[in-house]
């Protein structure tokens, strides 16, 4: 059952920037949806409208059947962790978490119980007396998360909560957040730049560009079958090659591949792991560089016109810079006018 309905929401800022453009999304109870997209694509604006920190210019937002479009943040069942998190530095951790509960006039004994439970949940049991500026970056993010969770929101809104942290910590925290989110079964909208984050955490991904949805789907589906060249180039490593189709053949420089679509311009997309290299007497590409990652290798190649391609290979020692190779796509998709027009059977 859907808890959150976003219907035709548009946000135009004074001055004319259309940050979000007729956006619609239904989020199921307990679902974690990741919003992914380049800087300025409208992710924060959308989240802020769900949280009540920004008013839509048009459209409707309902939570559990109630129209919240015009309600202020404190009257919505949402909790938000902001892109630049702001803990109250003049308060200790306990008071940061207790603040919202005090506003709700809960008795002190209940507040203490709830705060302790949430601190335990985010791995900060015993940190109540600490001032927030005496915490590491990761601990501060956990306090920010705990401060939202302690109010027991129906919907959790997270805007790049780990952006300022190093990769190692980010990976650990996203696993923790996923665990907590699943344990509490809390419906979550999570904004991130990090595709790894989105691919590993999300039940569904929403890819945004220019305030619009490019694609919505399960992470594995969006990765395997991007519906637009933008999504193809945005999620994961991808070889995107512009070329010309003539008589059922895609042609770019000296590279040719069967492509059963009408003649004309097209862009093909091939994952590096789907581009096979064959040592051959009739090479179509030249090896530029071989990088050995231990478990696999990455080969950079150039077509005759300098188009750079990448291929993931199991045995990097078979290839060396300067060598000529033949390239064979195992799986590919083709796009024309921003739409997918062909996809080979994997
Ligand atoms: N208060 C505002 N007034 C005017 N324009 C704004 C305002 N807030 C955002 N914008 C514009 O709206 C567009 C979307 O901004 P938004 O912050 O939603 O992007 P984002 O996807 O969150 O980007 P980032 O990944 O950099 O955080 C941008 O062009 C931005 O400049
Ligand atoms: Mg943002």
Question: What's the structural blueprint in terms of helices and strands?
Answer:
Layout: E1 2-12, E2 18-28, E3 32-36, H1 43-51, E4 58-63, E5 66-67, E6 78-81, H2 93-103, H3 108-121, H4 137-149, E7 155-159, H5 167-184, E8 187-192, H6 195-201, E9 204-209, E10 212-217, H7 219-224, H8 229-234, E11 239-246, E12 249-252, E13 255-258, E14 264-270, E15 275-279, E16 285-292, E17 297-302, E18 308-313, E19 324-329, E20 333-336, E21 339-343
Parallel strand pairs: 3-8, 3-9, 6-7, 7-8
Antiparallel strand pairs: 1-2, 1-4, 4-5, 9-10, 11-12, 11-14, 12-13, 14-20, 15-19, 16-17, 16-19, 17-18, 20-21
Helix pairs in contact: 2-3, 2-4, 3-4
The protein binds adenosine-5'-triphosphate (ATP) and magnesium ion (MG).
Adenosine-5'-triphosphate is lined by residues 13, 15, 17, 19, 37, 39-45, 83, 193.
- Largest beta sheet: strand ordering: 6-7-8-3-9-10
Low-confidence stretches: none
What is the distance, rounded to the nearest whole angstrom, between the alpha carbons of the first and last residues?
Answer: 33 Å
Rounded mean pLDDT is 93
The major β-sheet equals: 6 strands, mixed
Description:
- Helices cover 24% and strands 36% of the residues.
- It is α+β, with helices and mostly antiparallel strands and 346 residues long.
- The strands form four sheets. It has a six-stranded mixed β-sheet with strand order 6-7-8-3-9-10, with helices on both faces. A six-stranded antiparallel β-sheet has the order 13-12-11-14-20-21.
- β12 and β13 form a beta hairpin.
- The chain starts with a strand and ends with a strand.
- The structure holds adenosine-5'-triphosphate and magnesium ion (MG).
- Magnesium ion is lined by residues 43-44, 83, 159.
- Residues 13, 15, 17, 19, 37, 39-45, 83, 193 line the site of adenosine-5'-triphosphate.
């Amino acid at each position: 059952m859907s808890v959150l309905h976003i219907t035709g929401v548009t946000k135009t800022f004074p001055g004319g920037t259309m940050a979000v453009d007729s956006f619609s999304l239904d989020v199921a109870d307990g679902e974690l949806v990741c919003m992914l997209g380049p800087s300025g694509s409208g992710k924060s604006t959308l989240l802020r409208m769900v949280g009540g920190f920004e008013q839509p210019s048009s459209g409707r937002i309902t939570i559990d059947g109630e129209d919240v479009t015009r309600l202020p943040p404190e009257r919505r069942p949402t909790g938000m962790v902001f892109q630049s998190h702001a803990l109250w530095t003049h308060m200790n951790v306990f008071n940061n978490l207790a603040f919202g509960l005090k506003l709700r006039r809960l008795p002190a004994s209940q507040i203490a119980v709830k705060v302790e439970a949430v601190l335990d949940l985010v791995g900060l049991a015993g940190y109540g007396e600490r001032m927030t500026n005496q915490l590491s970056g990761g601990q501060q993010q956990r306090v920010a998360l705990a401060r939202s969770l302690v109010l027991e929101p129906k919907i959790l809104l997270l805007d790049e909560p780990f952006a300022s942290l190093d990769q190692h910590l980010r990976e650990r925290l996203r696993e923790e957040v996923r665990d907590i989110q699943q344990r509490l079964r809390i419906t979550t909208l999570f904004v991130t730049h990090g595709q790894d984050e989105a691919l590993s955490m999300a039940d569904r991904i929403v890819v945004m560009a220019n305030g619009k949805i490019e694609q919505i789907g399960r992470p594995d589906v969006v990765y395997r079958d991007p519906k637009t060249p933008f999504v193809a180039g945005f999620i994961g490593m991808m070889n995107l090659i512009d070329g010309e189709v003539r008589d059922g053949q895609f042609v770019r420089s000296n590279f040719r591949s069967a492509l059963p679509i009408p003649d004309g311009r097209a862009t093909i997309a091939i994952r590096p792991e789907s581009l096979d290299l064959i040592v051959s007497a009739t090479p179509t590409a030249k090896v530029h560089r071989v990088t050995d990652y231990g478990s696999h290798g990455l080969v950079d190649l150039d077509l005759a016109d300098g188009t750079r391609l990448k291929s993931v290979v199991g045995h990097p020692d078979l290839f060396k810079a300067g060598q000529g190779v033949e390239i064979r796509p195992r799986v590919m998709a083709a796009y024309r006018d921003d739409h997918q027009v062909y996809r080979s059977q994997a």
